[in-house]
Amino acid sequence: MRRLLLFVFCPLICLFAQTPKDVRAVAKQGPSAIPAVARYLNSAALDTRIETVKQLIALGGKDTIDPLIQATRDADPEMQIRATDGLVNYYLPGYIRQGLGSSLVRAGNSVKARFNDTNDQVVDGFVMVRPEVIAALGRLARSGSSMEARANGCRAIGILRGQAALPDLVEALRSKDNTVMYESLVAMQKIRDPEAGPKVAYLVRDLDDRVQTTAIETAGLLRATDALPALRSVVASPRNNKAARAALDAIAMMPELEDHDLLTRQLSQKDDKQRASAAEGLGRLGNTADAPELEKLWREEEKMLPRLGSAFALVMQERFEVTETSPFRYLVNTLNSASYREVAYAYLVEAARRPAVLQALYEPMGQGTRDEKIYLARTLAASGDQSSIPLLDKASRDTDQEVAKEGLRALRSLKARLGV
């Protein structure tokens, strides 16, 4: 019996006694060693568990997902953060170099990290994320061991488009921690589920400037009409210029008839961003009586943002002819501008939800410049229909490798969205 007990427990005793160096030695055997490496997640030594997560991430592959999910349940915040980054890295290769774990600093039991300012990453629409991954990240967003771990969980949910974790993001908004709240709001923007809109309306008056501005932006993107009264009050009595711009832009995303006069007045503002928002808002309202003023703004405006906004407004009023001097062609041409192509692209994505505009995009998609083809492919991926598939299939075989690469990505994303 004594020998049997030694046989059973000695390996466990040895395991708990081993060090990060031993984990690295096992990991050198390659992917086949993943199960052996994963056992070290049960070590009593924190540094050994942390090294285990690092080695699992380095090994990569689908067999590391379950161990990394297990690591998110570790009580230590550093383990949670590194495991979160590892899960994102599987679906977005290279993320680990810039994730929160890359800036971790440990002082005793506390962990500090610096979130980078860039938060625009998101997986392609055709990337299928395992439900267990989203569930694990949702648990962290809701109840991670530290605010950094919770915020990082929120960021990961957004990057992976984890719609199933929206209730966890809503719960994260109640944390009262500004970073957690900010990351939750940005994640909602990436997921773009209108059902979440009413859940953020109360934050458009938040006392933290960054949270307030982001909540305002989120309310607009999600078309949270419940927030319109508060947004109008922000425009009337803003805490700062940034909040005023964001509130007007949010109103312009979902204007109601009573906002017409407000938007018309804003066309004469000195701030070019406010003029741009006012123009696009009038375009969405669709009152043809505004066409002459929008036409005047488009032809005479010297600043790019309001000119683009007025071009979009005219396109929304069915000015989508493809002549070189048309507002529609102006938006397409702007895809060649490194400074403003993202603005034009966003306008085209929205406008292309109208069948006539979508059809009008097919000509420049076939004959445009490299940048036009790339961004129009992305537009078709986001707003195209079955008729867009042949165009993207052709783009995927373009002689320009960059166009072909983007065409294939767009084709896969469109098919995933259409379920074909």
Describe this structure in words.
By secondary structure, this protein is mainly α. Among the domains are: 1-59, no CATH class; 329-420. Helix content is 63%, strand content 1%. Strands 1-2 form a two-stranded antiparallel sheet.
SSE layout and pairing:
Layout: H1 2-17, H2 20-27, H3 34-38, H4 46-59, H5 65-72, H6 77-91, E1 105-107, E2 110-112, H7 131-143, H8 147-159, H9 166-172, H10 178-191, H11 197-200, H12 209-221, H13 228-236, H14 241-253, H15 260-266, H16 272-285, H17 291-300, H18 304-316, H19 327-333, H20 341-351, H21 355-367, H22 370-383, H23 389-395, H24 401-418
Antiparallel strand pairs: 1-2
Helix pairs in contact: 2-4, 4-6, 5-6, 6-8, 7-8, 7-9, 8-10, 9-10, 10-12, 12-14, 13-14, 14-16, 15-16, 16-18, 17-18, 18-19, 18-20, 20-22, 21-22, 22-24, 23-24
What's the gist of this structure?
This protein is mostly helical and 420 residues long. The chain has helices spanning 2-17, 20-27, 34-38, 46-59, 65-72, 77-91, 131-143, 147-159, 166-172, 178-191, 197-200, 209-221, 228-236, 241-253, 260-266, 272-285, 291-300, 304-316, 327-333, 341-351, 355-367, 370-383, 389-395, 401-418, and strands at residues 105-107, 110-112. Among the domains are: 1-59, no CATH class; 329-420.
H/E element string? HHHHHHEEHHHHHHHHHHHHHHHHHH
Helix content: 55-70%
The major pleated sheet works out as:
2 strands, antiparallel
- Provide the gyration radius in Å: 25 Å
Name the overall outline: globular
Strand arrangement in the largest pleated sheet: 1-2
* DSSP strand content: under 5%
- Rounded mean pLDDT is 92
Compute the separation of the termini in Å.
Answer: 62 Å
Low-confidence stretches: 1-10
Instruction: Give the beta-strand count.
Output: 2
> Please, how many helices?
24
